[in-house]
Write a structure and sequence with these properties.
This protein is α+β, with helices and mostly antiparallel strands. The chain is 23% helix and 38% strand. The chain has helices at residues 35-49, 99-112, 146-150, and strands spanning 13-16, 19-24, 29-32, 58-66, 69-78, 84-90, 116-120, 125-131, 136-140.
C-alpha cells in the first residue's frame, strides 16, 4: 500500500476475488480498501495510538441530514457526553486538501456545530479550530492530543 505521512501500522487485509479488503476495527468488519480508506484506517490509528483519542468516541461514515439531503461525514469524534466534537474528512492521497475540501466540512458543520475539523489526505493534515472573535478558523498542521482538546 501507499506510504503516508503517518507512522506505519499493521492491518488485517484479505482478498475476495479481485477486491482487496481491510478490517476496520471500529466498524468491526472488512471494507473495500480504496486509497481514501487506506488514509482513514491509518489516520484513525494515528489518533488512537499517538494522540490518545478514545475508540468509543469515534464514529465512521456517519450520515447527517442537511436541508433534506443525506450527507456522510467520514468520521466524527464525540465528547464524553456523546455530542459531536470534531468532524474529520479524509481524501485519497492523490487529492490535495483545498478550499473546496474545507468548504465541504464547513457545510457539515452547519448541522453539527463543532469547534474543530481535521482534514487529511495522508500526506497533508490540517487541524482547524473555530475562532469566533474573527468569525473564522485557526489552521495548524499539528494534531493535538485528545486530552488537551478537552481542557
Amino acid at each position: 500500500m501507499w506510504q503516508l505521512n503517518l507512522p506505519a501500522y499493521n492491518f488485517n487485509t484479505k482478498k475476495e476475488g479481485y477486491k482487496l479488503l481491510i478490517f476496520d476495527s471500529l466498524r468491526k468488519k472488512f471494507v473495500k480498501l480504496t486509497p481514501e480508506e487506506w488514509v482513514r484506517q491509518n489516520f484513525i490509528q494515528f489518533l488512537i495510538q499517538e494522540k490518545n483519542f478514545p475508540t468509543a468516541l469515534i464514529a465512521i461514515e456517519t450520515q447527517i441530514l442537511i436541508n433534506g439531503m443525506k450527507k456522510r461525514c467520514d468520521a466524527i469524534v464525540y465528547d464524553n457526553y456523546m455530542n459531536p466534537y470534531i468532524i474529520i474528512e479524509f481524501k485519497s492521497p492523490s487529492i490535495p486538501i483545498t478550499q473546496e475540501v474545507f468548504d465541504q466540512v464547513a457545510v457539515y458543520n452547519f448541522k453539527l456545530n463543532v469547534d474543530y475539523f481535521i482534514l487529511s489526505n495522508g500526506f497533508q493534515h490540517f487541524f482547524c479550530k473555530k475562532n469566533n472573535s474573527i468569525a473564522g478558523y485557526e489552521i495548524s498542521n499539528d494534531i493535538p492530543d485528545f486530552l488537551s482538546l478537552l481542557s
